[in-house]
TrEMBL record:
UniProt domain Photolyase/cryptochrome alpha/beta: residue ranges: 24-154
Entry EC no(s): 4.1.99.3
Catalytic class of the enzyme: lyase
The protein's required cofactors: (6R)-5,10-methylene-5,6,7,8-tetrahydrofolate; FAD
Gene Ontology BP, a term: photoreactive repair
Molecular function GO terms recorded: deoxyribodipyrimidine photo-lyase activity; DNA binding
Protein name as it appears in the record: Deoxyribodipyrimidine photo-lyase
Organism: Neolewinella litorea
Keywords linked to the UniProt accession: DNA damage, DNA repair, DNA-binding, FAD, Flavoprotein, Lyase
Region annotated Disordered, chain positions: 329-349
Assigned protein family: Belongs to the DNA photolyase class-2 family.
Enzymatic reactions: cyclobutadipyrimidine (in DNA) = 2 pyrimidine residues (in DNA)
Pfam families named among the record's database cross-references: DNA_photolyase
Length: 461
């Protein structure tokens, strides 16, 4: 298998089908890397197509019932995809919108187009891996996967599930320079206009495409986030100019909201983590602030990918926790809870904690919450529900329903972190046992709660 100047560690052929050299085109099945810039999977497909003397065609398979996704997520996704379609058109690369079961639809499309081979980007969650495995079995041509959404490929960073950030940090950081270079754009060598291509869905506009889908519309679109690489780059530039300096401490104050707000764009693959990394490293911010951001972007984020990849059956279950966490929860399972709130009360923000209610409001309305408040928000759910299992399920439900960056490796990992994953045992307390806790008093000592409440109250204006 040729690498076409893409790091070989990013490449993996998922089946052993022979190349169809007399086919009409090469297909890039875009799913996780929804961008036309700095996309190793796209550029690999274009370079392979050029090597074969064939045009490159991009296909995206859209389903109405993506697990836990709703209008908020679909609109953001399609805003980014519309930008991709426009940018690909400038490069004379067609984007075909396919509708229906993903593995079946891409298999039929590849067969109808008499494709030489199919390239796809890599995913890590159980259902996404299943779709690729099914497609690999059904396709009659090679399916090559290109890892495009982490800096250091998961299996290159580590060949096992890591215990914590401290056990993976050195392994990742010593390889970062090998994989963070720019992926340069390649000009397609063949025109695809002669191909008879058909899309299942019309993509005249985002609204028109949304109208064709039968999706969950219970959660409104976020007024603060617009999808696409251009918007991601705008936010990155603004962050580098104003908020990276002082990020080491400033990111802990949700009243200032001094973060990059790039996690939704990373989740949907609208921007490359390698691009972010290079620009942060090349900024004029103090080294300590740059290192603090790289820790979040590379070490912590890719620790999450390590976890879900090497824990495919249990990444959404308390079964994945370390033994000490399971033992302390078993010991404290019957501890009296100071207050009890139902899932419905929590979702509406109807607790006796004004800061927590404001956090839930920000989640519902913006689809975002600064990391320190995410910790406080999640820890109180443990305090207010009858069982740890129900607390975990409730936290995941709310996280994945409202957050723009929900339903990904970070979501499942960070929610389990609340219950001891990638953490250590702390001083034993009621309800939490040896789990790390954060009380309201601790929150108030960390930052100006009144300033945060004021900021959230202005979301109504």
């Amino acid at each position: 298998m040729k690498s076409f100047s893409i790091a070989p560690e990013r490449l993996k052929q998922l089946n052993d089908r022979p190349l169809r050299e007399d086919g009409t085109c090469l297909v890039y099945w875009m799913q996780e890397s929804m961008r036309a810039y700095e996309n190793p999977a796209l550029e690999y497909a274009v370079r392979w197509a050029n090597d074969l003397g064939k045009p490159c065609v991009v296909a995206f398979t859209l389903i109405d019932d993506f697990p836990e996704a709703n209008l908020r997520h679909y609109r953001f996704l399609l805003e980014g995809l519309k930008e991709v379609a426009d940018r690909l058109a400038e490069r004379d690369i067609p984007l075909c919108m396919l509708h229906g079961p993903r593995s079946e639809r891409i298999t039929r499309f590849a067969k109808d187009q008499d494709a030489c081979a199919v390239v796809t980007d890599r995913a890590y969650l159980r259902h996404e891996r299943k779709w690729r495995s099914e497609a690999a079995d059904q396709l009659e041509v090679p399916l090559v996967q290109v890892e495009s959404n982490v800096v250091v490929p998961v299996e290159t960073a580590s060949n096992k599930r890591e215990y914590a950030a401290r056990t993976i940090r050195k392994k990742i950081m010593q390889r970062v320079d090998d994989f963070s270079g720019e992926t340069t754009e390649t000009t397609p060598g063949q025109d695809a206009k002669a191909l008879e291509l058909e899309s299942d869905l019309d993509f005249g506009s985002v609204d028109e495409l949304l109208d064709q889908l039968k999706i969950d519309r219970s959660v409104p679109v976020s007024p603060d986030f617009t999808g696409g690489t251009a918007e991601a780059r705008r936010r990155l530039t603004a962050f580098l100019r104003s908020d990276l300096e002082g990020y080491g401490d400033g990111r802990l104050d949700p009243a200032d909201d001094a973060t990059s707000h790039l996690s939704p764009y990373l989740h949907f693959g609208h921007i490359s983590p390698c691009e972010i990394l290079r620009k942060v490293r090349n900024s004029s911010a103090p080294q300590s602030d740059r290192e603090a951001y790289v820790e979040e972007l590379v070490v912590r984020r890719e620790l999450a990918h390590n976890f879900v990849y090497y824990t495919p059956d249990d990444y959404d279950s308390l079964n994945a926790l370390p033994d000490w966490a399971k033992e302390t929860m078993e010991k404290h399972a019957d501890d009296p809870r100071p207050n009890h709130f139902t899932r419905e009360q929590l979702e509406k923000g109807e607790t006796d904690d004004e800061a927590w209610n404001a956090s839930m409001k920000e989640m519902r309305e913006r689809g975002f919450l600064p990391n320190y408040l995410r910790m406080y928000w999640g820890k109180q759910i443990i305090r207010w529900t009858n069982t740890y299992d129900y607390a975990h399920k409730t936290t995941l439900y709310l996280n994945n329903k409202y957050f723009m960056d929900g339903r990904d490796a970070n979501s499942f990992t960070n929610v389990l972190w609340l219950f001891g994953l990638h953490d250590r045992a702390w001083t034993e307390r009621e309800v939490f046992g040896k789990l790390r806790m954060l009380s309201k008093g601790g929150l108030e000592r960390k930052f100006d709660v009144e300033a945060y409440l004021k900021r959230v109250s202005e979301l109504d204006e």
